[in-house]
Amino acid sequence: MNTASSRKEKIVELTVLLLLLIFSFVFWDTKFVYPIKLFVVLLHEQCHALAALLTGGKIESMNIGFDLGGSCQASGGNAVVIASAGYIGSLILGLLFFLSPNNIKIGRWIVFSLSILILVFTIVMIKSEMFILIVALLVGVLIAASFYMSVPIVSILIRAFGLLSAIYVLFDIKNDLLKTKNAITDASIISNLTGIPEIAYGLIWLVISLIFLVLAVRFSYAEKKK
Asked: Looking at CB atoms within 10 Å, which of 44, 60, 89, 187 has the fewest?
């Protein structure tokens, strides 16, 4: 493929991706985007749970509501790491999905493996059969997509899902900082544990998230120097 064709394909792909993002933001509070938001909330809570297990803790309960509310109760483990894992994990998982089409051979296994892990966690931790069914359908779509990542539109859809997952971190931080008084959020928990003001912690993660999002987009679409 020559340089001109490659540049043209990148421009087309980036344009479609931006249009999908604009569509998602315009219809953010409608049923069109709801499944993605529900899935992203699930990823957020699963990251808390995984952090608890990796730091030697035990998961007492994990609940996800269809109103997009979620909670993960854990005992033991590193409390700061567990509380931070929602932001960190959601960003990392979103970026992994977004970057996976850069290398089709490796990327399809990243998408496939993450999808299976998400489904297993859901089956083990969530009690709602309806919720498990919805997640199974979404995971099924991701697994199917992983086998067809060489198809441009599939690649774009996987990137869009990853980017929305990562961008949701920004919404999460905003909601935590603009929360109602005395509401318990990740930012307030970390503030109590470390003494760092909620606003400072939120702004730090806001900047970190934006930097990594910009770097991921540039890495995927910038012209490679010869």
From this structure: 60
SS (H, E, C) the chain: CCHHHHHHHHHHHHHHHHHHHHHHHHCCCCCCCHHHHHHHHHHHHHHHHHHHHHCCCEEEEEEECCCCCEEEEEECCCHHHHHHHHHHHHHHHHHHHHHHHHCHHHHHHHHHHHHHHHHHHHHHHCCCHHHHHHHHHHHHHHHHHHCCCCCHHHHHHHHHHHHHHHHHHHHHHHHHHCCCCCCCCHHHHHHHHHCCCHHHHHHHHHHHHHHHHHHHHHHHHCCCCC
Host domain of residue 24: 3-221
**Does any domain span residue 33?**
yes
How many domains is the chain partitioned into structurally?
1
**Structure tokens belonging to residue 100:** 């996976």
pTM: 0.85
Residue 226 is assigned to a structural domain of this protein: no
Contacts of 169 (CB under 8 A, 6+ apart): 87, 90, 91, 94, 205, 209
162 is a domain residue: yes
Mean pLDDT within 73-86: 87
* pLDDT tens-digit readout, 143-177: 999 999 888 889 888 998 898 888 877 777 777 66
CA distance 24 to 20: 6
